[in-house]
Amino acid sequence: MAKKSVASLQTGSKRLSKAIKMIKSPKTGAYTFVESIMDPKKVNEFLAKK
After folding, report:
1. pTM of the prediction?
2. CA gap 17, 25 in Å, rounded
3. 3-state secondary structure of 26
4. How distant, in Å, are the alpha carbons of 14, 15, 41, 46, 49 from that of 9?
5. pLDDT of residue 32
6. CA dist., res. 25 & res. 41, Å (int)
């Protein structure tokens, strides 16, 4: 995991964050990006997962 990015989004009364994680594929060695929009409290949990 060489890169992480977190952006804050605000929609109405609900506050959300968009987290982007770069994951290296074990088969090809290529990197892919996984994006997710979630509650800001769950961002660290998302980035900690492999």
Report:
1. 0.61
2. 25
3. coil
4. 9, 6, 13, 17, 22
5. 92
6. 27
- Which one, of 48, 44, 49, 50, lies nearest residue 6 by Cα? 44
Model confidence band, residue 3 (pLDDT cutoffs 50, 70, 90): low
Closest CA to 50 of 14, 11, 21: 21
Tell me the C-alpha distance between 36 and 17, whole Å.
Answer: 8
Q: For the segment 4-36, what is each residue's pLDDT rounded down to a tens digit? A: 666 666 666 678 888 999 999 889 999 999 999
* H or E element that contains 45: helix 43-48
